[in-house]
Design goal:
The structure is a single chain. The chain has helices spanning about 10-20, 35-60, 65-95, 105-110, 120-145, 150-175. The chain has about 180 residues and is mostly helical. Helix 2 packs antiparallel against helix 3, helix 2 (about 35-60) runs antiparallel to helix 5 (about 120-145) and helix 5 (about 120-145) packs antiparallel against helix 6 (about 150-175). About 30% of the residues are buried. Bound molecules: fe (ii) ion (FE2) (2 copies).
Length: about 180
């Protein structure tokens, strides 16, 4: 039998899995500070919800010559931020936490802001700022997690990639609008 220095032996793994089964997906091999991860995820959840609301507002308020294609982009982003919010809420539950969906204090928990914007250009610019905030905060969270929670990290990496796409889309829109 070859040595497997990086893997815990099966017997220990099984014994550990049987203990604390009420913790669901959270096993003793989970080395990160779970409470901190849940707190960080709740901030990310608030951020995504604020982004949904802001994009929805922009979608409904978009008007002018170029409004239709831009509004379509706003709506698509709103829907994608909602998917992120759901993924994050799901992961919080898996980690034994509870998703904070309270409207009270939502903006304080969120990293991004809710700015309505008066014109199409302003809306796009505010969305771009928010995406850049999200990109930075996801990058930091991924760095914090390191290799301690690969599942959460993979989820965040997927979300981060999409926020980068969103930022790219918004830059393209600004260019198309000559701004
Ligand atoms: Fe998002
Ligand atoms: Fe986004």
């Amino acid at each position: 039998m070859p040595e497997r220095p990086f893997l815990t032996d099966i017997k220990t793994l099984r014994e550990r899995a049987r203990k604390h089964i009420e913790q669901g997906a959270v096993t003793e091999g989970y080395s990160t500070d779970r409470e901190t991860v849940i707190e960080l995820l709740n901030e990310a959840l608030a951020t995504e919800i604020v982004c949904v609301l802001r994009y929805k507002r922009h979608f409904f308020m978009a008007s002018g010559i170029n409004a239709q294609s831009v509004a379509g982009e706003f709506l698509q982003h709103a829907n994608e931020e909602q998917v992120h919010a759901d993924q994050i809420a799901q992961r919080i539950v898996q980690l034994g936490g509870s998703p904070n969906l309270s409207p009270e204090g939502l903006l304080d928990r969120s990293h991004s802001e809710y700015v309505e914007g008066d014109s199409l250009i302003e809306m796009i610019k505010e969305d771009l700022v928010a995406e850049r905030v999200a990109i930075d905060s996801y990058r930091e969270m991924i760095g914090y997690l390191g290799n301690d929670d690969p599942t959460t990290r993979r989820m965040l990496e997927g979300i981060l990639a999409m926020e980068e796409e969103h930022a790219d889309d918004l830059v393209s829109l600004l260019e198309e609008l000559g701004s």
